[in-house]
């Protein structure tokens, strides 16, 4: 299905980590706004749930860290729609561990998913984003990258690096007409604790600590993060680039 590049019709949006949580909300939010979404994730089951009952979402199973996968993912998007307008680098993982206990494999995996994959996928998507005439890259960072997070320092460091990439790419890609922005979520109601392998008791303890350190006094919803992603990527935000916007209930300034 080819989209007329001169039209003001739907944009084509690629969202990684779209099987659950923030990625699912982002994919559904863009689709609800009339855009055509390619939802990428490692597991077909959760992706099918993301797309269930939501016209405009096409699912694509794949591991963004796999050899040749960034290029394949972009090829599939272009084969389906002939263009790419917005890339949302949302896929990310957390592996908690104090410095004296963090495993080398967990360090490498977080760097691979949270930092290397966005670099390589954005690189693969750049020609299509440039051809769009108004391409946008939205990196999903974390408010933790703006402050210390003892016990998860590697995760925080990968996201702080993603913030730096956001600012650097914004300057580098501006002559191509590509904007680069980031959203930095705070504590959000997602399965991230389960994905870390935390027990229900430990996950509840983490949530209680997060609420206590969030001035608005609650956990955020994935849809609230998706709203910010969509606003930053909106054509009306055409003079906005290089920003990292915390959406964290005030946690980063408390």
Strand content: 5-15%
Mean pLDDT across residues: 92
Shape: globular
- The residue ranges in which pLDDT falls below 50 over 5 or more consecutive positions are 1-7
Sequence of strands across the biggest β-sheet = 3-2-1-4-5-6-7
Number of helix segments? 8
Q: Level of helix content?
A: 40-55%
Q: Give the biggest beta sheet.
A: 7 strands, parallel
Order of helices and strands: EHEHEHEHEHEHHHE
The value of Rg in angstroms is: 17 Å
Query: What is the β-strand count?
Result: 7
First-residue to last-residue Cα separation: 48 Å
What structural category arises from helix and sheet content?
A: alpha/beta
Task: Describe the protein's topology.
Elements: E1 12-15, H1 21-32, E2 36-41, H2 44-51, E3 57-61, H3 69-81, E4 86-89, H4 104-132, E5 136-140, H5 153-173, E6 179-185, H6 192-196, H7 200-212, H8 222-233, E7 244-247
Parallel strand pairs: 1-2, 1-4, 2-3, 4-5, 5-6, 6-7
Question: Descriptors for this entry?
Answer:
alpha/beta; single chain; seven-stranded parallel sheet; 7 strands; 44% helix; globular
Can you characterise this structure?
There is one protein chain. Helix 1 packs across helix 8. With 254 residues, the chain is α/β, with parallel strands linked by helices. Mean pLDDT is 92; it is low at 1-7. The chain has helices at 21-32, 44-51, 69-81, 104-132, 153-173, 192-196, 200-212, 222-233; strands at residues 12-15, 36-41, 57-61, 86-89, 136-140, 179-185, 244-247. Helix 1 (21-32) links the parallel strand 1 (12-15) and strand 2. It has a seven-stranded parallel β-sheet with strand order 3-2-1-4-5-6-7, with helices on both faces. The chain starts with 11 loop residues before the first strand and ends in a 7-residue tail after the last strand. The protein is globular. It is built from eight helices and seven strands, in the order E-H-E-H-E-H-E-H-E-H-E-H-H-H-E.
């Amino acid at each position: 299905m080819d989209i007329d590049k001169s039209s003001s019709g739907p944009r084509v949006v690629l969202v990684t980590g779209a099987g659950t949580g923030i990625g699912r909300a982002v994919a559904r939010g863009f689709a609800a706004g009339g855009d055509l979404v390619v939802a990428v994730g490692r597991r077909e089951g959760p992706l099918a749930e993301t797309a269930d009952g939501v016209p405009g979402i096409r699912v694509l199973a794949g591991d963004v860290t796999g050899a040749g996968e960034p290029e394949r993912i972009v090829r599939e998007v272009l084969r389906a729609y002939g263009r790419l307008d917005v890339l949302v680098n949302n896929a990310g993982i957390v592996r908690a561990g104090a410095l004296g206990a963090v495993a080398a494999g967990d360090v490498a995996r977080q760097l691979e998913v949270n930092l290397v994959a966005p670099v390589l996928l954005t690189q693969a998507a750049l020609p299509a984003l440039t051809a769009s005439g108004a391409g946008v890259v939205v990196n999903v960072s974390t408010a933790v990258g703006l402050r210390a997070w003892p016990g998860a320092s590697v995760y925080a460091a990968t996201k702080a690096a993603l913030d730096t990439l956001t600012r650097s790419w914004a300057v580098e890609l501006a002559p191509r007409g590509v904007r680069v922005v980031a959203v930095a979520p705070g504590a959000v109601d997602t399965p991230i604790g389960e994905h870390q392998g935390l027990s229900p008791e430990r996950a509840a303890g983490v949530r209680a600590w997060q609420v206590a350190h969030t001035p608005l006094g609650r956990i955020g919803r994935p849809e609230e993060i998706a709203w910010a992603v969509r606003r930053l990527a909106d054509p009306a935000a055409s003079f906005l680039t290089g920003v990292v916007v915390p959406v964290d209930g005030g946690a980063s300034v408390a």
